[in-house]
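This follows on from our talk about sequence and fold. Go ahead and set the record down below:
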Amino acid sequence: MAGTVDTEREDGLDFRTVPLGEIDPARSRHMWTRSAVGLAESGDLVVTGEWDGTVTAREVDSLEPRWTADHPDHAVGIASLGGDGPGDDETIVVAGRGETGTIAAYDAATGERRWRYDTADDVGAAIEDSVFYLPYVVALETGTDADGNERLYAAARRYERDGETRQWHSTVYAFDSAGSLRWTYETDASPIALDLDATGQRLAVGYNRCMGDHDTGLVVLEAETGALEWTWDPGTEGDRRVGDVSFDGDAIAVSSHGDKRGYLLGPGGAERWAIDLAVETEIDGERLYAYPNHVYADDGRVAFVTGNTYAVESRETDGRHPNEHRVAAFDADGTPLWDDDARGFVHGLAADGGRLVAPCAQNFRVRDPETHAVRAFDLESGPAEVERLAGIATAAAFGDGTLAAIEEPVAYHDDGETRGEYALRVGSLE
């Protein structure tokens, strides 16, 4: 890609560390989401969610626990939700993966559970005893609607397979701050990402897998009512469609799993530009590609992040796509600004304004521990700080200069050594 930057600034982020107990080490291949971290809107709390359901809120400065709660499911997502009135306290919302697929809100001051909603009542119960079949709240998004009311949006899904028949069941939700359900939007596709525009009027939903009646990768809903405004799709064959979505004003940036490109769309889905990110490329007799998994847009700049290499004819390959595990940024016209090597798999992004944080895990084809890091980028100028970890970074949260990340231990299958620990890392990123 043009504008490639390969220098790594090892300034370090001066992390403070709190151990999180025990968890089975990740292996060479990437494991599912097992941990979550979030920052309270008030700026004084960092909250962790663990695979055993433990949710802990800690003071940002001292990292002393304020409270601990037991979530009904694996705690795999965290968001902060303010109240609608002067006397309404902030709540911490936790997304679950488990038998009930629970969304629950906890008082930020005390940890007392304020309300609970079980998405399994809508998407159904698991038909097999496997993590991949469990109801899963894949995304949370909070914001203020056009009338100034705090709103929570969530997307839940469940997968099932009966012989050769594969199905998804999914629901998108809107809640008020008290947990009352405002509306739902149901499909037979697999949602993967949500984003709310700055006005609070439109909610974008990215669908990763479409193998039923719902056959479009991007849906834009009216946030107040859940009414459908418009849709867009990369128009590719197969069930892979969208990896992530991000609003920037009236534009939406979309990472496409269908054709491995990045898009910037205008109102109604008009395509302003499209960029080849990790499209099929022939190397040593194999056609290789990588999925653009994440996108973040802000103030006329867009950054895309690609993931692992795969081969068209097989999931196994020793080859590597030249643009795997890369962060690439573009301006509002689609002109390249810079791109840089993330080196390892990025589970998800954390961002605040013009700063972007990528928690980088293992590169299972190379199995190089040097890929384990938390990497920070400036949307305009490129790579900034790097904090290397012994284990893998699997989640991050960033706001008002505070960066929090989760480290998990990892043991490569052909190495035998366990690296790193299960821990919360907190530092400052100015």
Remarks:
- The chain has one domain: 4-428.
- Residues 4-428 form a domain with the Methylamine Dehydrogenase; Chain H fold (CATH 2.130.10.10).
- The first strand starts at residue 4 and ends at 5.
